[in-house]
Amino acid sequence: MRISEIYASLQGEGLLAGTPSTFVRTSGCNLRCVWCDTPFTSWKPEGREMPPADVLDTVAVLAPRHVVVTGGEPLLLDEVHGLCRDLRGRGFHVTIETAGTVLPAAGSPLADLVSISPKLASSAPPADTPGGWAARHEAARRRDDVIRELIACSPHQFKFVVESQADLDEANDWIDDLGDAIDRSRVFLMPQARTPEELAARTEWLAGECRRLGLRLAPRHHITWYGGRRGT
Ligand code: SF4
């Protein structure tokens, strides 16, 4: 499996924010979000091939007992099934971070938490992006059938990246469409930001909207703590 990086840090977002965690970041993605904060796994994917057993050994020497399998899009890789199974078998708590648009051939891997970050229309790259990525992104970004299978197999949380009222309206409609399948108490709204300054500017507005809608605010601590630097 192609791995971009493996490192220990603190989880910065969602239900497990603040938890010491090892991040296993796969490389490669089927989307091209215009604001992607890991372009080295999507726009210009880089990394090295590692057998899942080597990934497991690398994780095992690090201190955290929580592991976040993230990307890129980790569910593009069939090996993620065995990796999650073996990590859990060794006693690790496993979170899978995904956009919820694709599944491995064997279906949804089992995790202790599947963290789904659906990509709203505003995530699309510019229309003239080489490779036809605007159309490819739009065609691939919403797969409610995939989301339903993921949350049928593992406990879930949702993290919508929001920067405008239009994003908020689309996220609300999407949550309504998924209906009783999802737990609204596990739905987070996250300000779209790559720097502490952007984060501060958008958090105040979004906090008010979270109060109004009864949804949770995901503060994105890693940007505040580390400035969104790679490997943190
Ligand atoms: S789905 Fe994630 S990794 Fe892929 S382009 Fe979007 S933000 Fe980047």
Commentary on this structure:
With 232 residues, the chain is of the alpha/beta class. It has a single domain, classed as Alpha-Beta Barrel (TIM Barrel), CATH 3.20.20.70. It contains seven helices and nine strands; from the N terminus they run βββαβαββααβαβαβα. The protein has helices at 52-60, 80-89, 133-140, 144-153, 165-178, 196-213, 221-226; strands at residues 2-10, 20-26, 48-49, 66-70, 93-98, 113-116, 156-162, 187-191, 216-217. Strands 3-1-2-4-5-6-7-8-9 form a nine-stranded mixed beta sheet. Helix 1 packs parallel to helix 2. The two termini are 22 Å apart. The site of iron/sulfur cluster (SF4) has 13 residues, from loops.
Global Rg: 17 Å
* Strand portion: 15-25%
Order of helices and strands: EEEHEHEEHHEHEHEH
SS class: alpha/beta
Low-confidence stretches: none
Helical coverage, percent range: 25-40%
By CATH, the superfamily comes out as Aldolase class I
Question: Which hetero compounds are present in the coordinates?
Answer: iron/sulfur cluster
Count up the helices: 7
Q: What would the principal axes of the Cα set say about the shape?
A: globular
Top keywords for this entry?
232 residues, alpha/beta, TIM Barrel, 9 strands, binds iron/sulfur cluster
Please sum up the structure shown.
By secondary structure, this protein is of the alpha/beta class. It has helices at 52-60, 80-89, 133-140, 144-153, 165-178, 196-213, 221-226; strands at residues 2-10, 20-26, 48-49, 66-70, 93-98, 113-116, 156-162, 187-191, 216-217.
